[in-house]
Design a protein that fits this description.
By secondary structure, the protein is α+β, with helices and mostly antiparallel strands. It has a single domain, classed as paralog of FGE (formylglycine-generating enzyme) (Alpha-Beta Complex). Helices cover 16% and strands 17% of the residues. The chain contains five helices and 13 strands. The longest helix has 17 residues. 45% of the residues are buried.
Length: 363
Amino acid sequence: MCNMLISRFLLVGILSAGLAPVGSAQPQKGDVKRAELGGGVRLETVYIPPGEFLMGSTPEEKLWATGIEGGAQAGTNRESFEGEKPRPMRVKYGFWMGRTEVTVGQFRKFALATSYVTDAEKPGGKTQCFNPKWTGYNLRSKVTHPWEPMAGKSWRDPNFQFKLRDDFPVVCVSWTDARAFGEWLTKHERTAGRLPEGLEYRLPLEVEWEYACRGGSKKSTAFWWGDELNDGEGRLNISAVDFLPDRKQKWPLASAPWSDGFAFVSPVDHYGERGRNGFGLADMLGNVWEVVLDHFDPTGGHEELNVTTENYRPVCRGGNYFDVPGNARCAVRLGLAGPHYSDSRDGFRICLGPVRTVKAPKK
């Protein structure tokens, strides 16, 4: 009995490290797993081996981000959330990261299978959406913002003013909703016999996310492709030269000097191979903010899962379709208002990795 327990413990440890049992193939960088969600809908994850990287940004990068080209709001403390300077981090195990952000079609399979009701859909629920009556910030008079909390809106209708597509990233879902999706997918794949013990589908840790975002680079650069914004053309969806629906007006303030084809969300992996980083992951910057598992620490990210017991704010990473270039960098990190907050600029990406336990705070 003791030997059996030891063998089982070793197997779980091996799988948690991203390794394969003796006699089976060792996962390699770029290997793919596909979770079958039903009706031909699949969720693809890509294997990322253990490795090291630099987390955070340099003072020079922060200065660019708040300058003319970056366009991030100067004089705030949000760049300080990235830490004083890049810090060496190590991910000691291999894991699998979603090729793309979770889509509307994938989330729908979950909602249908479980009759799940998101935070925004519950009685009294609201989600932050675009107000189509908005025409500008009016910065010299009364400042008005384009986003408002709205009842009756959700992932089913984010108030985009155009038809929702199954290959759009799902938005208007909270940290709590994203975790529920991961729990369902874990049970679904384990029941089908496709999920090894010791692994689970969940939100990525913050260290996993930034390591994955940088695509294997050991340098500290603003974007996964380097430091030059212009090299991002054809790679990401951020604020650019694209008219808002039914008007001849683009998002104001700083923007990328090209058209990326979308004023709002773009279909996941729309940019193909050029939009994939060194690990083969699409849309790691721009499109929608991606919520991760960690609790927000304003002094910087952590190498291990960071959990607090009060004032819990989930971390989100990567920027979104509305963001200025300086807010869509590898190091950018923000804390959401809370675990039940949702927004039409926020979505998530799923990770397959070692089990990590975080108790959800009560509403």
